[in-house]
Amino acid sequence: MKKKRMLSYIEKESPVHALTGAVKLIIFLLWSVLVMVSFKTPILLFVTVLGFVFFFISKIRFSDVSFIFIMMSVFLALNLTAVYLFSPEQGVKLYQTRNVIWEGQGYFSLTKEQLFYEFNILVKYIAIIPPAILLIVTTHPSEFAASLNRIGVPYTAAYSVSLTLRYIPDVQRDFESIYQAQQARGLELSRRASPLKRLKRIAPLLLPLIFSSLDRIDVISRAMELRGFGKHKKRTWYSSKPFKKADIISLAVSLLFFTFSIWFTFRNGNRFYNPWG
User: Fold this and answer.
1) What's this model's pTM, rounded to 2 decimal places?
2) Is residue 105 helix, strand or coil?
């Protein structure tokens, strides 16, 4: 169960793992820009399916990252609800038509345009989740730092990212240890307690977790300072990978697809797909 909750590097033999971190990072940035900019539903649906195809190719089991998908599902539900509560007519404003499904009281009503608008938001979020997860779980933290440095990020900042990725499993392990220690002392934190009581009892566990995290940060920072980290402007990377033929082909195909998708998005002067117009 612990392993399923950890968002960290998972070693596998797959075409996605074989790509260098720099190429995966560039592809992810292109993917993110396209998903953020475009509201063309066919493009969004295609990249969503493509993301899950890559997830399947990577041989990463859904159970390994199910916790992240569950958390993102909760976030999506809250986000879509907030969009409707604060702007129930946003779809009408965008598509310039109004097909009422349910005429509510006063400010609130339900239209086909609003449902379609929120559907596009949902697809946009779902489209970005698989590549974001794959970037982390298929790239070794050291290689990821080397990739950031290769594309121009200062190596001190790149190394900080690497340490953060390495630190996520440690924080999760510390929380599990504290969680189990409190249960051993008689604090009921299992599903037999109500969700509200569990939430109240879990909150005090954050204090020892924070102190243990600060202590680990202090140890790491002192060790890096003693070794002269940051003294020179450049550094070499043990885990850096050279570009291979597969990297060049993947990058070229990604750039072509990104260019075509951007053209398709803005070819009629409107980045929104309107089924009513």
Assistant:
1) 0.79
2) coil
